[in-house]
């Protein structure tokens, strides 16, 4: 087959090509150049097959770079993939090794940073939740063996794998056989066999990127990028899977490490395992004259496979003193010279380009120093293997710990995560038979544990499950053979500026030396000082090497002595669009509406958004603006009666034997002795003692409370309750249920509200004697609807709240409308509610508070119990700073001219502030240009009140209560306005109107 590129073809028929379909040729365009490829190719393998190994230059130092790896660990090759169709957008910062080649694909390299496509993405993204008895991550030989064992019982088994086909390392092997069948074919046959079981789910092209508490794994699946456009319609492009598993088997394999030496970043330096993968999986030979540099036996498998595919092996360089059987065999069969106790100490580029043309080799003495003469060998590819790092990322996501294993020179996971079982290379056993054995044991153990927890039949799988048998010619596993890590090859020039540790961040050994010289001796400090491991590859090829270089400087053989670098989700980069799923556009912040919404719309209501709710803001009549409507509504409530849709208030039902104790711990005042049928206003503080929410909580029964919260704070309060219940007080018998949307709430307020309620609920005695403030009673409305009616007031007026099942909300609203017609009952919205409550000095959390306001600051000191031994925030309220007399306190403010409505947020300054202070003046300036302006506080709420006959507001002011009657100034529209400080409550301070 001839390539469409200008470079010579490196596609070889001598390799098995386990991952490609040679009967399906495709064409891709890369950097404007066309390349021939096959279905199953990665973008990287297609380029290598076309003779193109070089990537974009490095981001910071602009050094030539080439493809290093074959998987997600690739640090150099980042690409932008052009929109695959008209219904697509460009994607950028994708590893060239992870992009599946498809016919017509267009892409180009980016140098460390791509540009986001500003075009709106029309693709569909979604999420799906799944429960599994056993979840297996990785479909290599270990994962497949685990799945076989786990399916011997009645378990629901899910197997996820990031590759487009099963097999893992088997796809990269030329000779592996399982139970007498070609390894790659055995993997495909195994998936086909397991898929006949209805309890088995296999998700390919799916990467587990996060592992959380209680075996909660989140994975990203690519579903359509490999399909023809006609097959993509109606299918989500990517899906985020949320999988809750009883048991998890981790079989993610291991990642090969590069070796750190001078000019180790040159294009043509490639991991030996990657060279083997490109050759055997993709039939793409990455070089013709290949040198091998290794610290272990695994690279000799690659040497033999490359040689079998037609490449010339020009040198075998081994850091170890003695030749292993694998090394001797490779030297004999390839005819290459074997150099022991040696290292590659540098590379040279061709005269005509940047790609590797030769390697420099030197012997090492017993202390690792250079010795003897340096020789140069011509080579166009250097396959390096510095050993393998088990892929412990998902294990450490669960706070799992690791131990440095000197036998493999790598970190292996400890058995310290509940419900987790490790298999394959993750355990440090890198042989194929070891993968099958450990996988089978892990699958059987997971099945037995899941069966015991769920009570189903484990079948035969929990016994001595038989592992498949592997036959692999030329396999040279690390276990059982000497591994001599070579963390840092000395530089012939003495400079380490070009001995690179992190290729993506252009960080060399010299950068670690500078960090160490600055006193950094922990790897976490080194990472932040140098930025090693902080690029989108998250240090997959650099992390352990950086630790090793630091340990070498300190003189430690145990890498754990310099600190173990933890990994955080995500394991690989993922698009924000996938995380958002369907929650974008109109669904990004869904609008919530009450059952009374149709009536509001017909009445011409204007709405405001509060905690996703569409809350009625005001009801303007013909010719009215908002100001006029609010003035009319406010007057109507004070003079007669008004009604408001209060459905949006958060409602949380708290049930259980310890419900009273639970509620009591959150509020600053007492609730344990609250009687059934009564309600009480409560203030909820954070641990810092600052107000976080407020509301009325009613005791429905001895073991049942109904807590109301602010509309916008409902979700946060519910999370707050759940957090304390689950993490601090799990011993309390409490169940929490959000019931906000289960009830419609109608507030009827004003002097005539009692008359309206008497007509709406004719069987209810609404007199003060029979129905006191802060009580509730169950009643039947005149239309037969059951209701809970409460006497609660947020306006200072005689007020009732009618609560009915949400289904009856609209009918109850119309019933109130009909009953109040003779009193000219007026609907009112949130703006009028704000005016009414502010006249009474009642706060709105989040408007009159800002996270720095204590209950006493807000005039709610009376709601803080002096008898309670404990409530959340109590200790913080007892701090000296929380009791300072000069704290900002909530008071009322009124413009002296009785005309100016102060803007919310307006700053209050001293009365004698001088617009143009003279030098040496003791007066405060007004503008910063004349000196520092001292603000004594600011306006939090401001309105025009028809009931007070003037504008007024609330403000947080230093020592505010002591300043009542004092005059201050505020700059409004460039003019200084005098402002009088008043008491918090301006309307009916005696509270006579509350009882009618």
TrEMBL record:
Gene Ontology BP annotations: tetrahydrofolate metabolic process
GO molecular function annotation: nucleotide binding; sarcosine oxidase activity
Keyword set, alphabetical order: Cytoplasm, NAD, Nucleotide-binding, Oxidoreductase
Spans annotated as Disordered: 1-25, 911-930
Subcellular location: Cytoplasm
Pfam family, any one: SO_alpha_A3
Ranges where the SoxA A3 domain occurs: 498-582
Main location: cytoplasm
One CC-aspect GO term: cytoplasm
Segments forming domain FAD/NAD(P)-binding: 133-403
Residue ranges annotated for the Aminomethyltransferase C-terminal domain, each copy included: 889-988
Cofactor(s) in the UniProt record: NAD(+)
EC number: 1.5.3.24
Similarity field: Belongs to the GcvT family.
Protein name: Sarcosine oxidase subunit alpha
